[in-house]
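We both want to read discrete structure tokens more fluently, so let's practise on a single case. Would you write everything just below, so we can both look at the same thing?
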Amino acid sequence: MNAKKLIFASSFSLFLAFAAQGQVYQKVENKSGPVLGYSATSGVKVLTVAGMKFKDLNRNGKLDRYEDWRLTPEQRAKDLASKLSVDQIAGLMLYSRHQALPAPAFGFMAGTYQGKNYQEGLVSPWALTDQQREFLDKDGVRHVLLTAVKDSETAARWNNELQSFVEGIGWGIPANNISPAIWSGGRFGISFIGHYDSIVTTDRFRDGTTLVSYRYDFWGESRVDYGHG
């Protein structure tokens, strides 16, 4: 098999794998603007205005100011805030309880998958639990505390499942994943971060999302820092 056929076969196999997992993402390029990414399963469409592409996050068929990347973050945030109810704003100020991937059947971080525990449900370890779907959709929570993870691949693919889900509900507001253990001397470490980042950025071009964690460096600094993904 020559190199071109090998590359095609590998790419096609990767596409099939992501399609089977519900993780198929679309990339949209703007000649004079940002590269946009969105989930093919979220229901979000792309609008074309003056030859430029924008994500229709609330799926109303028109370009709202908060969806317009040409505006400043302050202008976009002000427009979005004006559309939200008090309950929705309150949800954005809350954090989830601690989350484990996959969720155990019992205990503090227990969760279910379509009413079954992880062992019974025959789901991938990065699937969203029933409880996660509820606090994201019903309560409007967008800050998720991630404290126990099977491995870096599970964390990355769960993140993309998470972003796909919230992109398809309400105003399409992305989620922030917060971990108190992502630093070089902590539970996950530098190799974890590198693998996590490679999967997330390969699977999907995300915009507007943030990984919040302890600063990861070789001196064990434990102050909170922000790593934009």
